[in-house]
Amino acid sequence: MKVVVGLGNPGAQYANTPHSVGFEVVDKIAESCGAAWEEKRQFKCLMAKVAFAGQQTLLVKPQTFMNLSGESVAPVVKYHNATPADLLVIQDDIDLAVGKMRIRKAGSCGGHNGIRNIIERLGTQAFTRLKIGVGKDSANVIGHVLGKFDPVTRKTIDLVVAEAVKAAEAVLRDGPDKAMNAYNGYNAQV
């Protein structure tokens, strides 16, 4: 069983914000598979079971708020007898320019509190991440990641989200190494 987690913050006020771009990618995957989200209170998440990239896959949107994402992700992984190698986490990354995407097989949290909490709760850094570049405002990081996308940035993000669905499929189908070779140079052009 593969587990694809999109990180974000629950609630309409956080839609269309950099911090919830992971939700957008898994929403597109669910839509492409004709799947509906179900609330799973025991896992503090919304979940959809799909066939994606030839794999039985759980799509997960933690409903814990970003900084506590591991409280949802770790129990889902453990309950479904998945391993960290079966996990793909889709996240925003302020250190990547808008329009860029990067796949990493493991590593530190890079300052991302949602990833930090997942690492703490899983007890390992060895899981694949698909990072979506959202740019940075060094003077106001929190305001930036929780602020709404402007219309020009939104167009670029729409392109990246569509490509991220393909990249996630490649990670599951071909493995992270091949997916990294195919997508780590990606830069959306509006």
Describe the fold and architecture.
This protein has six helices and seven strands. A hairpin with a 4-residue loop joins strand 2 and strand 3. The chain is α/β, with parallel strands linked by helices and 190 residues long. The chain has helices at residues 21-32, 70-79, 113-122, 141-146, 151-174, 176-183; strands at 2-6, 38-40, 45-52, 55-62, 87-93, 101-104, 128-133. It is globular.
Which helices and strands occur, and which strands form pairs?
Elements: E1 2-6, H1 21-32, E2 38-40, E3 45-52, E4 55-62, H2 70-79, E5 87-93, E6 101-104, H3 113-122, E7 128-133, H4 141-146, H5 151-174, H6 176-183
Parallel strand pairs: 1-4, 1-5, 5-7
Antiparallel strand pairs: 2-3, 3-4, 6-7
Helix pairs in contact: 1-5, 2-3, 5-6
> What is the string of SSEs from the N terminus onward?
EHEEEHEEHEHHH
Q: List unreliable stretches of 5+ residues.
A: none
Mean pLDDT, all residues: 95
Strand order of the largest sheet: 2-3-4-1-5-7-6
Give the distance, in angstroms, between the N- and C-terminal Cα atoms.
36 Å
Class from secondary-structure proportions: alpha/beta
Number of strands: 7
Number of helices: 6
Strand content: 15-25%
Q: Using the alpha-carbon principal axes, give the shape.
A: globular
| Percent helix | 25-40%
The gyration radius over C-alpha positions equals 15 Å
Major sheet description:
7 strands, mixed
State the gist of this model.
The chain is built from 6 helices and 7 strands, in the order βαβββαββαβααα. With 190 residues, it is an alpha/beta fold.
Annotation keywords:
single chain; alpha/beta; 190 residues; seven-stranded mixed beta sheet; 6 helices; globular; 37% helix
